[in-house]
Amino acid sequence: MCIGPEGDMHGVSPGECAVRLVRAGADIVGVNCHFDPMTCVKTVAMMKAGVEKAGLKAHYMTQPLAYHTPDCSCQGFIDLPEFPFALEPRILTRWEMQQYAREAYKAGVRFIGGCCGFEPYHIRAVAEELAVERGVMPEASEKHGLWGSGLEMHTKPWVRARARRDYWEKLKPASGRPLCPSMSTPDGWGVTKGHRELMQQKEATTAEQLRPLFQKADAKN
């Protein structure tokens, strides 16, 4: 499901969505895309609680975005003004991905992956965090070492001082964009499945069709 803690666009909670999926025959339930890792972990935890309360069993999966989305509404990142071509400032660090992997595992999730925005180093970070549980360390991990331990050999002493887990866990990365807001206001057009504006066309949208959309967007801003 592409949902967050608020549930789907029709008001169905994550727990109830999961129960319906399992009763329909699903062996694995979870969330994919639209929200950041910690939001997805929270959502799957709600799904798991709903399934267990109903006396059912399932396996659980998370495939979140690699972007921070604390300001998303019910529809997720597709409502953000930065979607889809200006999301890079929101990307998670590899250390935040390790935290995601640990929290997902603690929540009972065993299929832990990623969706939009994930890079190879993100997936490697997930694998590194769960190396003990998996019984194998991913290739190329020696390049930087676990939690930056490879920095012990760096030529700069202040960088060598960063060769420890607590440094990276406590770091609050700067964006380098002084005039950028910390949050955005989602568009929230209020259209969902079945609305005529969401119908997929076979041909490219014409200038005439785009004009009212531009006007609507400008009016909201």
Polypeptide structure, described:
The protein is mainly alpha-helical and 221 residues long. The radius of gyration is 20 Å and the shape is globular. The longest helix has 17 residues. The chain contains eight helices and three strands, in the order H-E-H-E-H-E-H-H-H-H-H. Strand 2, helix 3 and strand 3 form a beta-alpha-beta unit. Helix 1 crosses helix 2 and helix 3 crosses helix 4. It starts with 13 loop residues before the first helix and ends with a helix. Strands 1-2-3 form a three-stranded parallel β-sheet.
Topology summary:
Elements: H1 14-23, E1 28-32, H2 37-53, E2 59-63, H3 94-106, E3 111-112, H4 120-129, H5 131-134, H6 157-160, H7 165-170, H8 207-220
Assembly of the depicted chains:
single chain
Please give the radius of gyration in angstroms. 20 Å
How does the major sheet shape up?
A: 3 strands, parallel
Unreliable sequence segments: none
The fraction of residues in strands falls at: 5-15%
Number of DSSP helices? 8
Residue share in helix: 25-40%
The strand line-up of the biggest sheet is 1-2-3
**SS elements, strand count:** 3
Q: Could you tell me how far the N terminus lies from the C terminus, measured between alpha carbons in angstroms?
A: 30 Å
Global structural class: mainly alpha
Overall geometry comes to globular
Order of helices and strands: HEHEHEHHHHH
Write out key terms for the chains shown.
single chain, 3-stranded parallel sheet, 3 strands, 5% strand, mainly alpha, 221 residues
